[in-house]
Structures are given as structure tokens and as C-alpha cells.
């Protein structure tokens, strides 16, 4: 699948998104400082509709893109052996990157100690009611239900990417197995993929408005003051993300050499959208487009990228250890803060449990609630403590997830000899 190049438009979109982000911060600050709580809530709810419209427009094309590109990609890979080889390389990257992210987060939060001495009085646990409900019933059975679809239509309707991947792999292998009879289906889905990616271009015109709404709502509701209160926590987390970025980019340089800068430029627009909307879904279609423009073979992109959305969330992984250790430090849970063995066990549990809840809103907090409870952490009080600033941390971790998935997809393409100069 070849995609025409539009570097000028891409650069212009990134600029518009950055401008919208700044305007959103200014507008939100003005409202927060000059109006009463009722007016602020009304403004925040209404201005966020811009983001809702943008995200829903993106979500409506995720299912056809994942299904069409993945089936075509599987068909072009040719056989189960090739699928297994590519999947094996991707999973090797995902597991390694997840362990590095979790371990780095654990080391840094132990060094910075952002929770030590934090004021935990007046914590409103009722604020986390919806997150608590999502974490209940978190079990092996729920994990299986999340992975294996009972209806592909339901999976498409709810944008369950991992379920779509499972169905699409089976469908793609079956289409390949029937030979010539499957060719019309492959051609039709290839056309559907082209049409869906063209829709991405139209939807992205809404991105600056969506970004403006997200930033204005967040700042109007919380104000800039909340950033000062949680300054050490947010600062420590972003310092950790910066180190993780340096590590990822260093590995990227070893693999791609001078082409790394070209890859970063390609994904600048998706990353800026991910940062400002704190939504991985919002950038999936655009990321598919940009990875192919970078020179990755579409069959690799369509196979590896959806897997990455469930198994390769580097920023979220780091945040899980950060948030759980912050809670342990803030509430003085020495059984965790003083026991490295327990910390490592908790890290490994996060590695497993995080795979069963990808795609759920506030997924990182849900996993912290579900897993932290196993280690006797006061997770409800802890999550209530950090809920107000979670959106600001979510921006950074979502942006990091995009970088990690882009590098993983490009790396597998390179290892398969399928990375071309555009």
C-alpha cells in the first residue's frame, strides 16, 4: 500500500495542534481564575465536547482499519511460519521494553521518593468510584474474556483492539489457506484500508479543536495550582519518562542510525495529539499512515502495531510502578517500600495484569487498583490522592506509548528486511 507524501501538510498540522494546546491552556486558566465552581464545571463539560467529537470520529474508523490492514497483512505474510516469526520478534521487543520500563520506574521512584512526607489528609475516596468499579472482578476469567471475542461485531463496536487482532489473524490465515477463492476478499479489504486511511486525513482536520477542548477543560477544572501541589510527583515522573525516552531513542539510533530523526519527524504529529488528548486511540489511524510513509512494509505495520497497543505500553508501565510506589511512600507502607523482593514481585504482577485491561479508560489506574490491593496497599485512598493530576501524567505516558510502538514496528520491519527508503 503506497501513500502519497504530504510533509508540508503534516508539519502544518503539528503546528496547529501546538497552537491549539497553548490557547487551550490560556483559556482554561482564565476561566479557572475568574469564575465560580458551577460556571467552571459547565465550561469544562461543554468545551470538552470538542474533544469528544474528535475522539468519536477517530474511534469510528479504528475497527475497519485494524481489520482490513491486519487481514491483508496476514495474507501477504503468506503462512503461519512467517506470522509466528514476526509475532515472536514483536513479543520479544514488547516484553523486554515492558520489563525495562517497569524496572526503570521502580528504580527512579525509589530514588526520588515523591510520596515521602506527602499530606494524605482529607482524601475523598468517592472520587474514584468509577475506577474502583472497573477494577472489581479483575481475574483470569476477565482476562480471557478481554482477549477472546465472542462476537467480532461486538469487538468492532467496542473497539476491542486485542479481540480484533485475534479474529483478524484467524480470518487472514483462513483467507490465505483457500488460495484463489480468497483473493477477491483480500483485494476488497485492501481497498477498504485505502479508503479508511483517506478518512483519517479528513478526521485529522478536527485534531486542533479536539486538543483545544481537552487542554481548556483540564486546566479550567484543576487549575495550574494542582501542578504546584503535586510538583515533585509530576516532575519525578516526567524525569523518568525523559530517561526512558533517551534509552528508547538510543536503541532506535543503534537500529536505524541517521534515519531515526526522520522517524521522529514522521510521528511528531501523532505524538502531539497523543500528549494533548491523552488518548492512544486518537492516534492509531494516523500512526499507521505515518509508519508506512516512513518506509515500513504495510503487512508488518498492520500486524505489529495493533499488538503493540495491547502489549507494548512503555509509558503506562512506568507509571504503574510510579503510582503504586508513590502510594506506598505517602501512606508509609513499609512492607512494600522496605522490601525489594516484594517490589520485584509487584513489578512482575504488573507485567501480567496490565495485558488484561488494555483499552479501558484510565487503564493504568485500574491496574494499580486491582494489583495494588493484592499487596495490601491503600489503593482507593491512594488513587483518590493522585486522581486530580492523573490527566497530566496520562499525557506523558500516552505520548511515550506512541513512541515505543513506533520504534517497535519499525524495528521488526528492519529485522524482517522490510524497511524501505520512502
* Low-confidence region ranges: 1-8
- Radius of gyration over C-alpha positions, nearest whole angstrom: 21 Å
Biggest sheet statistics: none
In the CATH hierarchy, what is the architecture at level 2?
Orthogonal Bundle
Beta-strand content: under 5%
Count of strand segments: 0
Counting DSSP H or I runs of 4 or more residues, the number of helices is 20
- Shape, please? globular
> Which percent range fits the helix content?
over 70%
CATH topology: the name is Proton glutamate symport protein
Q: Structural class of the secondary elements?
A: mainly alpha
Give the distance, in angstroms, between the N- and C-terminal Cα atoms: 12 Å
**Quick one: CATH superfamily?**
Sodium:dicarboxylate symporter
> What's the mean pLDDT score?
85
What count of domains describes the coordinates? 1
Explain how this protein is built:
There is one protein chain. The chain is mostly helical and 422 residues long. It has one domain (7-415): Proton glutamate symport protein. Helix content is 79%, strand content 0%. It contains 20 helices and no strands. The protein has helices at 7-34, 37-77, 80-112, 129-135, 140-147, 152-157, 161-177, 183-203, 207-222, 225-229, 231-256, 259-266, 268-277, 284-294, 298-311, 314-330, 334-337, 340-353, 363-372, 379-415. The longest helix has 41 residues, at 37-77. It is globular, with a radius of gyration of 21 Å. The chain starts with 6 loop residues before the first helix and ends in a 7-residue tail after the last helix. Residues 1-8 have low confidence and may be disordered.
Amino acid at each position: 500500500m503506497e501513500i502519497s507524501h504530504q510533509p508540508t501538510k503534516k508539519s502544518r498540522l503539528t503546528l496547529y495542534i501546538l497552537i491549539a494546546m497553548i490557547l487551550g491552556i490560556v483559556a482554561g486558566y482564565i476561566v479557572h481564575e475568574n469564575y465560580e465552581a458551577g460556571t467552571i464545571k459547565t465550561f469544562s463539560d461543554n468545551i470538552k465536547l470538542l474533544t469528544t467529537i474528535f475522539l468519536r470520529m477517530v474511534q469510528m474508523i479504528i475497527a475497519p482499519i485494524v481489520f482490513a490492514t491486519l487481514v491483508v497483512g496476514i495474507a501477504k505474510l503468506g503462512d503461519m511460519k512467517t506470522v509466528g516469526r514476526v509475532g515472536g520478534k514483536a513479543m520479544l521487543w514488547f516484553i523486554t521494553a515492558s520489563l525495562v520500563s517497569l524496572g526503570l520506574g521502580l528504580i527512579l521512584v525509589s530514588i526520588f521518593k515523591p510520596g515521602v512526607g506527602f499530606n494524605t489528609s482529607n482524601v475523598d475516596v468517592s472520587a474514584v468510584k468509577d475506577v474502583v468499579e472497573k477494577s472489581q472482578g479483575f481475574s483470569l476469567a476477565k482476562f480471557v474474556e478481554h482477549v477472546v471475542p465472542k462476537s467480532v461485531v461486538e469487538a468492532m463496536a467496542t473497539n476491542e483492539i486485542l479481540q480484533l487482532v485475534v479474529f483478524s489473524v484467524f480470518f487472514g490465515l483462513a483467507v490465505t489457506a483457500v488460495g484463489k477463492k480468497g483473493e477477491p476478499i483480500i483485494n476488497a479489504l485492501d481497498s477498504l484500508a485505502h479508503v479508511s486511511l483517506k478518512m483519517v486525513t479528513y478526521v485529522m482536520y478536527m485534531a486542533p479543536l479536539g486538543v483545544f477542548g481537552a487542554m481548556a477543560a483540564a486546566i479550567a477544572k484543576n487549575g495550574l495550582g494542582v501542578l504546584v501541589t503535586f510538583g515533585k510527583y509530576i516532575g519525578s515522573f516526567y524525569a523518568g519518562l525523559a530517561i526512558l525516552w533517551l534509552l528508547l531513542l538510543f536503541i532506535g539510533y543503534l537500529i536505524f542510525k541517521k534515519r531515526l530523526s526522520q522517524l521522529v519527524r514522521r510521528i511528531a504529529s501523532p505524538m502531539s495529539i497523543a500528549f494533548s488528548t491523552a488518548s492512544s486511540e486518537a492516534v492509531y489511524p494516523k500512526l499507521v499512515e505515518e509508519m508506512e510513509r516512513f518506509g515500513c512494509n504495510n503487512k508488518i505495520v498492520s500486524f505489529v502495531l495493533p499488538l503493540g497497543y495491547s502489549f507494548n505500553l512503555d509509558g503506562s508501565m512506568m507509571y504503574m510502578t510510579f503510582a503504586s510506589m508513590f502510594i506506598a511512600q505517602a501512606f508509609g507502607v513499609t512492607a512494600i517500600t522496605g522490601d525489594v523482593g516484594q517490589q520485584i514481585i509487584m513489578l512482575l504482577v504488573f507485567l501480567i495484569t496490565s495485558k488484561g485491561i488494555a483499552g479501558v479508560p484510565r487503564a493504568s489506574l485500574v491496574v494499580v487498583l486491582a494489583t495494588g490491593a493484592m499487596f495490601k496497599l491503600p489503593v482507593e485512598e491512594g488513587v483518590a490522592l493522585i486522581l486530580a493530576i492523573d490527566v497530566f501524567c496520562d499525557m506523558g505516558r500516552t505520548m511515550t506509548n506512541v513512541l515505543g510502538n513506533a520504534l517497535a514496528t519499525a524495528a521488526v520491519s528492519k529485522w524482517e528486511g522490510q524497511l524501505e527508503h520512502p
